[in-house]
Amino acid sequence: MGGRSFVTGYCDIQQNTAYKRHMYDIALEIDMPASFVELRHEATHEELPSLQRLSGITTQALQWLWQHYWQRLDIPTTRAQATTSHSQPAPTPSQLRNELTTFLRARLLEIKANSSDLSATSASGTACAALVRLCRGRPASLDALCGLLVAPKMLVPANRALGAPMAGALAVWDNLLRRLALHQRAFAPALCVRLVSALAEPSTLDVRIDAFGEAVFLWADHVLCRDFAAGPEGMKPVHAGRAARPAKTGAGRRAARSTNETMPSPAASNLWERHVDGALRDQVMSDCVVDPNCWTLRLARGMLAVEDEAKLGFRLTWEALVEAAQAAVSP
User: Fold this and answer.
1) Residue 231: which of 192, 179, 178, 174 has the closest Cα?
2) Smallest Cα–Cα separation from 130: which of 145, 143, 117, 140?
3) Backbone angles phi, psi at 227, to 5 degrees
4) Which residues pair with 152 in a beta bridge?
């Protein structure tokens, strides 16, 4: 009996190996990443992969489906249109980085000249037109652009110290980001996913000295929670902890205005809100709960605390999950 079980097990292994090799061949034929096959094999025959890895592969799979299936359904009606749509190759990371670097230089010159020009010929308008031209219809290029933005020395100033004000970064980048979100519907979701992914990255730094994490959090908080104006204070550093939100009473609102916490100006109110829908909020909250740490949970609590009666269902859905994630990481 034991010998028969050994033979049966050996045959199963051989069959699995042959099937895996066959799946690799199919993946090669349809230009599918081999990592998809490897993940399927692990989930079926070995230990279940981590949620973080599953989430990352899912994002890649959605991009692959878009590029190899959904995007190809929108077939141009004429041969001339087909030639035009495929004549430009996808931009390289270097091209995207060069556009951002060129914008940064031009924008800094505008700020030094105290220019308030926000027209199509301004640094933001010119850069937006160039980046939209490079990334339109290319989710992978848009994701690469957001990855470059979230990397150090772009949205996060070089050598930023913990607690340093973010008004300068907001003045440099916010108008360009808004323009991109307006002209590319997929930009705001791609940027939010990249911001949360950066917050969820494992780090050996204590939160009290994590200047980069603080800056990324402030950008995520700006887009998803509170729309700050690019004023003299800009986005307030939060390493010392954020005060509890006052009650929704007249006295509570007056107390909020009297605190040192920078609040959104009426001119800036809800400008990002139009680009952040319920599906994106749910996705961000899911990512925060799946990869809980100081920064992702702080962002999750900020999203829950947004004073908007229309989001009561959102709070009811996620509040208990956020509390459970908080309990899981608390010492």
Assistant:
1) 174
2) 145
3) -90, 95
4) 156
